[in-house]
Each structure stands twice: as structure tokens, then as C-alpha cells.
Amino acid sequence: MENISRRLFFRQGLSLGAVTMLSGCNLQDDTAIDKVLWVMSRWNDRVQALLFDGNRLAPTYRPEDITDPFPFNAFYPEDSAPEVDLLDYRLQVSGLVDNKASWSLDDLRRMPQVSQITQHICIEGWSAIGEWRGVPLSVFLQHVGADMTAKYVGFKCADRYYSSIDMPTALHPQTILALDFGKDPLPLKYGSPMKLRVPTKLGFKNPKHILEVFVANDYPGGYWEDQGYNWFSGL
Ligand SMILES: Nc1nc2c(c(=O)[nH]1)N[C@H]1C(S)=C(S)[C@@H](COP(=O)(O)O)O[C@H]1N2
Ligand SMILES: [Mo]
């Protein structure tokens, strides 16, 4: 398996290199270079998907390893984090699922919960260890009768942010719809009332303030993904 994908890597890598030379793009030709880089990144997604082991767990840490204060990050400053009304909150479910009924926070809290102390790694060059607790996304998807053979699970947030992950990662045991941070409900800045915690991917693949979960076969992209960050971004 590893040999095949490595061979695949070199063959595809070489042919991509050849394409780059043959197309004769010069440094002025931004769109041609851009196209090649996008193709390479999507190909990189496929290799990462091939190598992803749905049973391999991300490292977990001890309570004394938890980073305090935990850093905040978003595409806006901390005081602009979107305030979602907890009582009115209804998580929307759409796409390739049998049951599109929305979920209140109580509905989510009645589901099985798991905890994890894991490391969050941001592409901007920092990492921190935190504790999150919530519903395994696999349990949630099972419950709404999601098409588990679909390619993507996507997320829409209260702040225009959006992201999506591959189905094997969505079904990974450490991928959770997190409701708690440490012992408390998720604070505003860390994604209240609910965020995706996925410790097998980079920080930007952990959307906060989630309003909608959907299952799809059409590539949903993401806020940073559509601006060039590699979509799979596995660790
Ligand atoms: N809704 C939303 N989710 C988001 C972001 C955002 O801007 N909006 N930023 C992402 C990035 S780049 C990082 S590193 C983490 C930061 O999460 P934290 O504030 O809990 O540390 O949230 C991710 N999820
Ligand atoms: Mo990030």
C-alpha cells in the first residue's frame, strides 16, 4: 500500500512537472501557474486521503499539559466573535441525510458525549493543548441517517466561516461536535455554542459557531481552503 502510493506520488509528481514545463508558463502568466498549483493541491488531497488511517488516534495529553490561556484565532478580532442565542439555537441538517430535523442544544446534550485533551495546530505558527467534550460526529451522522458513502461533510458558521472534511475523517472517533471547553460550555471566543473538534487536522479545519451540518458529494471547499490553503490539511 505504502509502496504503491509512493510510486503514484513520483509518477504523478513527474508528470505534473512535465506539464508545467510543456505549458511554457512564464512568471507573468499568473493564471496558468495558479491552475497548476490548484491541481497539485487537489492531488495532494487525494494522496492524504489514501494515507489517512481512520483508526489511528491523534496524541492525547494530561490535564496539566493544557495551555492556559488558550489562544483565540479567527479572521476578525476577539470582540467581533458572533453571539449566537443559546435558547433559540437550532442546528440545521441538510444534504444527503434521511432526517433533516433541526437540533437544539439540549437535543445535542442528550446524545453520548466524549472528552479529549488534544493539540490544536494553527497554520499561522502556533499550537496549544485544550480539552473539548461533545458528540462524536459519527454518532450524529448515524442518527440523522447520513449517506456514509458520500464524500464530504460540510459546516456553515454564524460568522460567514465555512469548511468541509472528508467522510473518513468525519467518522474518526476523535472528530466531535464539541459543546464544552474544559469543564464549561464552549465560551463565545472558542466557538459557542458548538464547534467541530478534529484533532487529525490543522486548526482552520475546526469551524466554530456552527449553524448547519451538511452531507454532500459536490466539493464544498471552505473559507481558507478557497483562498489556497490545502483542503485535506491532515496532520
Ligand atoms: N467560525 C470560525 N471558525 C474558525 C475560524 C474563524 O475565523 N471562524 N478560524 C479558524 C482558525 S484559523 C483557527 S486556528 C481556530 C482557532 O480556534 P480558537 O479560537 O478556539 O483557538 O478556529 C478556526 N475556526
Ligand atoms: Mo488557524
Automatic annotation (TrEMBL):
The keyword Glycosyltransferase does not apply. Residues 81-224 form the Oxidoreductase molybdopterin-binding domain. Keywords: Plasmid. It holds the Pfam family Oxidored_molyb. The keyword Coiled coil does not apply. Signal peptide: none annotated. PANTHER family: BLL0505 PROTEIN, PROTEIN-METHIONINE-SULFOXIDE REDUCTASE. This is Molybdopterin-dependent oxidoreductase. It comes from Sinorhizobium numidicum.
